[in-house]
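Here is one such tokenized protein:
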Amino acid sequence: MTIRILLVEDDERLAELTAEYLTKNDMQVTIEPRGDTAEARILAEQPDLVMLDVMLPGKDGFEVCRAVRPNYRGVILMLTARDEDFDQILGLEMGADDYIAKPVQPRVLLARIKALLRRLPATDAQANESEKMVFGQFNISQSTRTAILSGESIDLTTAEFDLLWLLASHAGNVLSRDDLLQELRGIGFDGLDRSIDARISRLRKKLNDDPENPTRIKTVRGKGYLFSKHDWN
């Protein structure tokens, strides 16, 4: 399941660079630049993790953390340009799960995020959620091995479902033929095998994707295939 992160950061350039790096590592990141509007978004969207800067316009990160903690189930990682012990202690007392001082190396940040998420016990709801994905009018369930588009069930073979699930699990990212074959069959692409291409063609027909100009499962020339996060309405 793709990790959903809400990055509450008013430094536009820093926020964009951070979001870009985390997105490349299979995380879905949205940005909120203000503290006074972040609170409602956190409670409404319930992201898996909130990266919360301390110094924000409208309302500081400590206030936001204290306000959302009683009704927010995910992880809160506080960010600050200051590294005084007072900030760290205050953030944790407000309900933050961890604290990291800026500037931070991207790889260190990624490792900290993964470590935080591993600490959380999986609830039944989270376990069930990990077995299904929803994109607009399309949803796919691994536990029941079903795919539904605009309320209608799609008839898929086992191989087609496995390929569709794999693509959807990496929505927004390009997977090469080699990636797909390694994951699905444990072999690399020899330059001749067209089984993936044939399955993609069949999936596009079943997903009502225009074969001449596909938008749901896109071909990225010279690289592979990309399952769109959008275009499912």
